[in-house]
Design brief:
This protein is of the alpha/beta class. Among the domains are: 179 residues, ANL, N-terminal domain (Rossmann fold, 3-Layer(aba) Sandwich); 115 residues, ANL, C-terminal domain (GMP Synthetase, Chain A, domain 3, 2-Layer Sandwich). The chain is built from 15 helices and 26 strands. α6 crosses α7. The chain is globular and about 65 Å long. Keywords: Ligase.
């Protein structure tokens, strides 16, 4: 098989072309053949605008089946889709474009307003139908376009994720590394035959995560890799989920813990009959939440551990559960074919049961396109340093104990404290601020802002102690800061909790001590 990821859809068009490959949440359908031909139309349209192999094409698009067509269409000509979150505001969009230097920026009707300010820095084309004043990409036609050959280490796409420190980073993902990750998961997944193909009458998979998220994009590719159709919706919602479950009778799901939380706490009972298992990844799921879901619906929750940079590393399958291999609290068995080591800070490989950083040999990523120093820290001699701490036991089961990185995982999305802090320091009431992640039953973690107030901005006497003011005044300042953050950040980055403190403890070098702050101000 070709290394080009577009060969996945071409292969399925050849062996099950009349089977449905894509459903929209509103009932629209496309067969594998139709997806292949429409992707060909996208490929021709991009080529007509001068896009060639290796060029990056930024996609600032509402989540849905059309985004899948643009992924495959770009890959057909060897172009590199840069999937930018549709939740980003204009400033975050501009930063993403600046980091990745795309040849084109594609927007739909919803994103056209945010993109108009970038027209002078990158060619912006609309794929929508409304008259936005932007030139349009003529892509809505079918064409048979064969995928070009690409090297295994050729850049396939750029996804935004966390680096070792600081603001969001753009991760370069390769064609060959993605194929290897898909094949690895297919070998350990239930419901596939020896060739890794689902039965022709297999039920579709719901792609619950957005396609600008590594989990959503990989879920789409995996389903098509094994021959399953996919349902792609705009966003998660319990009512939406209930309607689609009635219509498609899914037999498995891949959810974030946040989604499981909403399902458990919904008043309505969802039709989980026939669902064999729910895979949860993206962040840890609490035991309380897991137990509540399994007791309510009698469906087991499986876990998967991996990352955008490393691919699938470990997890539990239905076969493991039936065989009695499952160990509560673990990340799962290290998958066959995964070359994993646990190392100390000096790079020494540790033995069974010894705790250190998880490192994995992987060709999935070429590093960060916007940060050479962080890339050098991430990938060293072909080994990806995950930043996660843990150990492997004598049975090959991986156990995680924490993260080196300061990243906060809020509802499955990665949030970087420094980005929030930079924004909040622009507010006149904020003298200093530190953002930390604190546990939350629904979101996994939420950002907590520890704020040293500058009340001289409005003539106040200043803060006395941790509360800083009476309750009414504090509530007013919280509302003001929340509104300020929401205007400048995606909603999932806005702090969900606020505390006012007299000062933040600093190291001798002048840096705020994150651990000390957490222990002093956050611990119950």
């Amino acid at each position: 098989m070709s290394s080009n990821l577009a060969a996945i859809i071409e292969g399925r068009a050849a062996d099950r072309g009349e089977s449905t490959a894509l459903w929209s949440e509103h009932g629209g359908t496309w067969t594998f053949t139709e997806v292949d031909l429409l992707a060909g139309g996208v490929a021709q349209a991009l080529s007509a605008h001068g896009v060639v192999a290796g060029d990056r094409v930024a996609c600032y698009l509402t989540n849905g089946p059309e985004l899948a067509l643009f992924l495959y269409g770009a890959w057909k000509i060897g172009a590199v889709p840069v999937t930018i979150s549709s939740l980003y505001n204009a400033a975050e969009l501009a930063e993403s474009v600046d980091k990745t230097s795309p040849r084109l920026l594609l927007v739909d009707d919803r994103g056209s307003a945010a993109a108009t300010t970038l027209a002078g820095t990158v060619e912006v084309l609309s794929i929508g139908t409304a008259d936005s004043g932007l030139p349009r990409l003529d892509w809505r036609h079918e064409a048979r376009v064969a995928a070009v050959e690409v090297a295994e280490d050729a850049e396939a796409c750029i996804l935004f994720t966390g680096g070792t420190t600081g603001r969001p980073k753009a991760v370069s993902i390769t064609h060959g590394g993605t194929y290897a990750s898909l094949a690895r998961l297919a070998r350990v997944s239930a419901g596939t035959d020896r060739q890794g193909s689902a039965a022709p009458d297999a039920r579709p998979n719901l792609i619950a995560l957005p396609l600008f998220h590594s989990g959503g994009q990989h879920s789409l590719l995996f389903a098509h890799f094994v021959g399953r159709g996919t349902v792609v919706w705009e966003r998660f919602g319990v009512d939406r989920l209930a309607r689609l479950m009635e219509r498609h009778r899914f037999d498995n799901f891949f959810f974030l813990p946040t989604m499981v939380y909403d399902i458990v706490h919904a008043e309505q009972d969802l039709p989980f009959e026939g669902v064999k298992s729910v895979l949860v990844a993206g962040q840890a799921i609490s035991w309380t939440l897991r137990r509540q879901f399994e007791e309510r619906y009698q469906v087991p929750i499986l876990v998967n551990y991996g990352s955008t940079e490393s691919g699938h590393i470990a997890g539990w399958t239905g076969k493991d559960m039936k065989a009695g291999l499952w160990k509560p609290g673990s990340a799962g068995r290290v998958y066959p074919g995964v070359d994993l080591e646990v190392r100390d800070d000096d790079g020494r490989v540790l033995g069974v049961g010894e705790e250190g950083e998880i490192v994995v040999r992987s060709e999935l990523t070429k590093g960060y396109v916007d940060d050479a120093a962080a890339s050098a820290e991430l990938v060293r001699d072909g080994w990806v340093h995950t930043g996660d701490m843990g150990h492997v036991d004598a049975d090959g089961v991986l156990w995680l104990s924490g993260r080196k990185r300061d990243m906060i995982k809020c509802g499955g999305f990665q949030v970087w404290p420094e980005e929030i802090e930079d924004v909040l320091r622009e507010h006149p009431r904020v003298r200093d601020v530190r953002v930390v992640g604190v546990p939350d039953d629904r979101m996994g973690e939420i950002p907590l802002a520890l704020v040293v107030r500058d009340d001289q901005a409005d003539g106040a006497d200043g803060a006395d102690g941790a509360d800083g003011a009476d309750g009414a005044d504090a509530d007013s300042v919280v509302a003001e800061l929340t509104a300020f953050a929401r205007e400048r950040l995606a909603h999932f980055k806005t702090p969900r909790r606020w505390e006012f403190v007299a000062e933040l403890e600093r190291s001798e070098a002048g840096k705020i001590k994150r651990t000390a702050v957490e222990l002093a101000e956050v611990a119950p």
